[in-house]
UniProtKB/TrEMBL annotation:
Cross-referenced InterPro entries: TumE-like
Protein name, entry field: DUF6516 family protein
Amino acid sequence: MLDEFEIEALLSLDGARFEAAEGYVVEFMARRTEATKERPHGLSYSFVFRPLDGEPYVRFDNANAVERPGGKYVKAPRAYDHWHCRSGDPGRPYAFTTAAQLLEDFWKEVKREMAERKIPNDL
């Protein structure tokens, strides 16, 4: 069961845009949707960290499905919750548990990417 307080906090970020460091932004989209097999939590979201004039370095979203690694004989179901690291990354499944954990995992990847790229930050 999802915590309604966490969901409301997540939804309050819809449309928010923050400067993460000089020349870099974090952008949020979060909306309620009908709960479906693909989005059982009833949320549509996209969180992006990118340079002001460039492609995303980190993106967590559930806009489309990505393939899950499957076995030789069993095809794994497609995952809608997923994340990307760097432009051109086809995405990897993300195990959505709670809205708070989603935000925590996004910020963790943003901080990792900033450190790897030596982007100064106070996050």
